[in-house]
Amino acid sequence: MAIKIQTIKDIRFYLARELEGTFHGEEIRAFSNIIIRHVLGLESMHQAYLSDIKVNESQGEAVIKICRELKEGKPVQYILGETLFYDCKIQLNNATLIPRPETEELVEMIINENRKFTGAIIDFGTGSGCIAIALAKNIPGTVVTGTDISSAAISIAEKNASQNNVKVKLLVDDILSTDTGNLDKAGIIVSNPPYVRNSEKEFMQRNVLGFEPHWALFVEDSDPLTFYRAILYKAQTLLQPGGRIYFEINEAMGNAMVALLESYGYSSVVLRKDFNGKERFIKGEKHAG
Asked: Integer distance in angstroms from the first to the last C-alpha of the chain?
């Protein structure tokens, strides 16, 4: 059958037909909304449902190309080169992870608990900068620094900070290095470091394994807390007395993370579940004395 896309209604019909059997109906509807808004440059979701809006030839061809890449397993966020994270538009490339809804939960927790905070924040392993940018945008008066081992990720994070009209200091830095000389002290430290054990790869979706940077996802089974331990070591110097530390964690590592934070002298250690009921976040407070 010849492909002829002339309206938004045609886009929805085409995507539903082409993606059937690869994705379920809810996913296809979500993809359709994202693709329509991106290709047609629509500002509101309401416009994406106006089925008679005309589509020109180049826009139709763009939809077909995106659909082909989706069928190959490429995540839609990488195809489009951007996503939304906590009301921030975030550009992505193959050096940055796709921000997850769970990480939005972490950001929301930090914002809700620190609305009057006006000090410095460090985000270790910032990637696209999504956490650092969302915090800078939503907690006025903070000075946010994001670090990452990848200069390509830092380059994207700089673009994202500019695009979202926030000031974030961005540095190339290795979490596993013990050097803290290029970082100032902070009242809040946050990180969503690599935490998926190599043995858990078999349970990961193919679009994650095939396209997202493995070095930002996986850790050795022999030492799955290596990045957390390195950050806690740095925090001995960098986190101010009375400061707070927040982590996103592997759901299987909750008890081990509680023990780790307590071994570094943190008090008020709290383990929290995500919207799926999995132990996903932990926070602690550094002794003021």
From this structure: 74
